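Subject: Interface between my chains keeps coming out wrong

I've been trying for a while to get a sensible model of this assembly. When I model each chain on its own everything looks fine, but I need the whole thing in one frame so I can look at the contacts. Pasting all components below, labels as-is. Any help appreciated, I'm running out of ideas.
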Amino acid sequence: MKNIWTILQREFAGYFASPIAYVFMIVFLLGTGIHFAYIGDVFTIDRTEMRLFFETLPMTFLVLVPALTMRLWSEERKLGTFEVLMTLPMTPLQITLGKFTAAWGILGITLLLTLPIPIILSTLGPLDWGPIVGGYLGSFLLGGAYLSIGAFASSISRDQIIAFILTALMLSFFVVIGQNDVLALVGDWSHNLVTLCTNVGFLPHFDSIARGVIDSRDILYFLSITGFFLALNRFTIESHRYA
Amino acid sequence: MIDIQNVEKYYGSTRALCGIRCQVSAGKIVGLLGPNGAGKSTLMRIVTTYLASSSGTVSVAGFDVATDPLEVRKRIGYLPEETPLYREMRTENYLRFIGQARQMNPIRLKERLTYVIDKCGLQTVARKPISNLSKGYRQRVGLAQALIHSPDILILDEPSSGLDPNQIVEIRELIREVGKEKTVILSTHILQEVTAVCSEAIIINRGQLVAQGPLETLTGAASQGSQYIATIRGDSESVFEAFKAQSELNQITLAESLGESARYRIQTSNTEDIGELVFETVRDAGLSLSELVRERDDIESLFQRLTTNS
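Reply #2:
Try treating it as a single job with all components included. I did that and got this:
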């Protein structure tokens, strides 16, 4: 546990020593804020809710999360610090978790920074907190799943840009297969495929949490995806020994 | 301390190490020699558990690198080739991170931090970001990183590459000092470095062990005796007369005449030190000795012989 914390601290400081954390936060806050306020017409529609805010998150994360994870492993490999890291008396799992939780922490803080939105909304009219709490929980879990995929992609590429593109592609896959249009399309061929896509895609699970329906199956889904890619990540860095 | 048995390493179908077998005992400074691409780094990476060997076993302080990698890592301080460091961190913070990652308790870490910063001459750059440091300072940070937890074994991959002559001298001094109480393995292709700091050498070529042992034995075996160059003032007739009388010194030839004095070459068949004997012989004959040098370039000829044929 202490080892995970040591790695987490260093990674966290690393994010703030480079512009990445700041750029991520500012672009995220500006992007979601502007979208929510103007495109979503929050001032003219007669409802106080954040559904639109949460609905856009899977897309916003698609562009921003790869930026947060691209350097996680590829930079270590490029600079050779990977060799120092892997000869420290720690297990590959501890190092993997330390790096992942640091990125997840940045994402969590960024989400917390959007709290003024519901607070302002609550002053404008009666606010149903259920969907909002669910939305935040869902977003945090969704972000975790995205980050685990990004971390894995970074662990198999030596170059940050390649890690970025690979992450974006993998995330797109998981987003696209859960989209309604795609589900309708594959529905023409096979019903089983629809079930599969609904179960594997991000959106069906995220939408229900974001609507305020906290189902343990959805939570389990996100945790499983995260766990699966972290396990792969641990495996790739360990397999480096047998190169 | 380190026991390497029949280690082989394949990268795909390329064989980088074939059946390396050697031991390093505690408290020695061992030079790992070989031409570029001989497999020095690969061997070090296997000992430090960074790479797994394809076959064979390595044990470090009684722990097997394959089954007990964490115990091995705890006992090793490692400076990889090219000194990789987190550039954005400040020297002190970087060293503290390594100490924490090595599970040192805070009080001990604080002590050691002061110690290694002082020993490695990092006082002036302790608060500077590593990216601002010169190559020489980075090398010292890398060495400090390897020393922070006071490991029993220090593994240094080309510790003096890219340094200027003054920095090389400083680094060697530091290694020699550390080597008084630790086991050190350093790889290099600079042969003077081995004679300057190491007591033993392991020479590998194309993944194979070609020689191992104390420096004296290795070079002795290569030259079958040693050679001295003496500059003696006085008449050369009486020099020859005095030296021919001694059985150990009778292989003396005139190398160069320098007016009043002359330079002589003395060949011995064994490796024992004959310095004192030369001095006494010269004194007893009423001559004066102005310089006596034991030729020690044997390691170079040994290295060339072992790594160019085959």
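Reply #3:
Confirming on my end. The radius of gyration of chain A is 19 Å.
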